[in-house]
Amino acid sequence: MHIDDSLGFLINHAGRRLTLLLALRYQPHEITTEQWSVLNRLYEQDGITQKELARRSEKDQTNITRILDQLERKGLAVRKANEADRRSFLTYITPKGRELNETLLPIEQEVIQSVLGGMNTDDVAQLRRLLKQVTVAAERTIEQLGE
User: Fold this and answer.
1) Which end of the chain lies in a sparser environment, N or C, as judged by fewer CB atoms within 10 Å?
2) Does domain 3-116 fall into CATH 1.10.10.10?
């Protein structure tokens, strides 16, 4: 089989293309897609620990610390000491971060719509369902390998 026909390659390639499109559209707002994924998770629920934010963002602790450093420098997020556990920090989105995220969400939707424009609603729903199914199966396999 040719690599261009490999399902893993196709999924990865599509993801990289989408990331590039988003990066190009986010560039004028001086934020990377990696930073936005963390900012958006805080937008969904802030006041969570760095560890929980890392889990939700699918980033390791080192990367989440680096990204939060960048978001703090830009005034988009803040970390505060966790009074319940002095070894951890709680992460919060700032009003400036909330405003930026509300600007970026429609851009993300436009990018996705531009690449899915030729698909009907049923095709998009099926693609979403199949990608979730692949993700769950991959996670299950990873867990089994870790046992």
Assistant:
1) C
2) yes
The residues, any chain, with a CB within 8 Å of residue 98's CB and separated by 6 or more, are: 43
- pTM for this one? 0.87
* Domain ranges (residues) in the chain: 3-116, 119-147
CB 30 within 8 A of CB 75: no
- Say what the pLDDT of residue 65 is: 95
Burial class (CB in 10 A: 0-12, 13-18, 19+), 98: middle
The tokens for 89 are 């920090």
Query: Which two structure tokens, joined as six digits, stand for 8?
Result: 């893993």
* Strand ordering across the sheet containing 89-93: 48-49, 89-93, 77-81
Continuous H helices in 74-120: 95-116
**The two three-digit tokens of residue 136, written as one number:** 């769950």
